[in-house]
Amino acid sequence: ADVSRTEALQALWEAAGLQQVQTCQIRVQRSFAGFEAYWATVLCAPSVGERLSQLTPADAAALQDRLRHALPVDAEGRIHCSAVANAARGRKP
Questions:
Q1: Does residue 1 have a pLDDT over 80?
Q2: By the 8 A CB rule, do 86 and 4 touch?
Q3: Is the separation of the CB atoms in 14 and 90 below 8 Å?
Q4: Which of 1, 14, 53, 72 has the smallest C-beta neighbourhood within 10 Å, fewest atoms?
Q5: How far apart are CA 86 and CA 28, in angstroms?
Q6: Per-residue pLDDT tens digits for 19-71
Q7: What are the residues whose beta carbons fall under 8 Å from the beta carbon of 79, sequence distance 6 or more?
Q8: Calpha distance 30→83 (Å, rounded)
Q9: pTM for this predicted structure
C-alpha cells in the first residue's frame, strides 16, 4: 500500500504531531530446509494460515504445486526468501 512507503510514513507520523521522525527499511532473509519446512511455517502464519486451512484439498495441492515451482531453491533443496519492511519512529513533543 502507498501508506507503507517511507515518505508516506514520515508524513503520517509528522501529521500526528511526532517530532524527529526517522524512517528506514528493514531487510530480512529467511531460509528453510525445504518446501515442507516452508509450507509448515506458512500454515502457521497469522496473516494467511486460517485462510489456507479453508482451501479444499485440491486447491491447497494446486497452490503448493505453484509455490514449489515459483520459489527459489538452491542446490541442496533449501528455499531462501527475503522481504523488506518500512519502519518509522518519532518522539512525542
A1: no
A2: yes
A3: yes
A4: 1
A5: 11
A6: 999 999 999 999 999 999 999 999 998 889 889 989 999 999 999 999 999 99
A7: 31, 32, 34, 35, 37, 38, 71, 72, 73
A8: 9
A9: 0.67
